[in-house]
Amino acid sequence: MSIPYLEPTINLKQGSKGDGVRWLQWSLNQNGANLAVDGDFGKLTNEAVLKFQKDNPPLKIDGIVGPLTREKLKSKLKTEISEEIDIRAGQNITLMAQDSITLMAHRSITLVVGGSTLIMDADGTIKLDGNNIILRGKTIKEN
């Protein structure tokens, strides 16, 4: 997983600002927080840091993000999802990538957005709302 912000080289605490805080907020979000990545180490970021430190002993629960907290954050970042994920009604999953996301399946991938359904089969067939769309080179035509 490519981290879109540079890791800070100084300790961060409430009141800190800048790209190092963006790295922290992004990393906390990858570990279950739901923070705005705005570069401002405010109350919500502090609460997320304290929770992360509490949930990851033997980190000191002091709200200061030093080398040990940064290392633990990095070690917990997931680089690959290698298990089936079952998303139930009312739940959401967000996949974020700096460049691209690859979904792999042996038979098909189904994407449902609003009232539209897109199905991609292993034979190369793509169906949008039940209609076949054939993609060959640069030609697109409806079947």
Lay out the secondary structure.
Blueprint lengths: L18 H12 L12 H13 L11 H10 L31 E6 L2 E6 L4 E3 L2 E6 L2 E4 L1
Antiparallel strand pairs: 1-2, 2-3, 3-4, 4-5
Describe what you observe in this structure.
The chain is built from three helices and five strands; from the N terminus they run H-H-H-E-E-E-E-E. It is α+β, with helices and mostly antiparallel strands and 143 residues long. Among the domains are: 19-76, Muramoyl-pentapeptide Carboxypeptidase, domain 1 (Orthogonal Bundle), CATH 1.10.101.10; 108-142, no CATH class. Strands 1-2-3-4-5 form a five-stranded antiparallel beta sheet, with no helix packed on it. Strand 4 (131-136) and strand 5 (139-142) form a beta hairpin. Mean pLDDT is 78; it is low at 136-143.
- Secondary-structure element order, N to C: HHHEEEEE
For the terminal residues, how far apart are their CA atoms? 39 Å
Shape call: elongated
Number of strands: 5
As residue ranges, the low-confidence spans are 136-143
Largest sheet: 5 strands, antiparallel
CATH homologous superfamily classification of the domain at 19-76: PGBD-like superfamily/PGBD
Mean pLDDT: 78
**In the CATH classification, which architecture of the domain at 19-76 applies?**
Orthogonal Bundle
What level of helicity do the residues show?
Answer: 10-25%
- CATH class division of the domain at 19-76: Mainly Alpha
Query: Which structural class do the helices and strands define?
Result: alpha+beta
Largest beta sheet: strand ordering: 1-2-3-4-5
Instruction: Compute the number of helices.
Output: 3
CATH topology of the domain at 19-76: Muramoyl-pentapeptide Carboxypeptidase, domain 1
Q: How large is the share of residues in beta strands?
A: 15-25%
Cα-atom radius of gyration: 20 Å
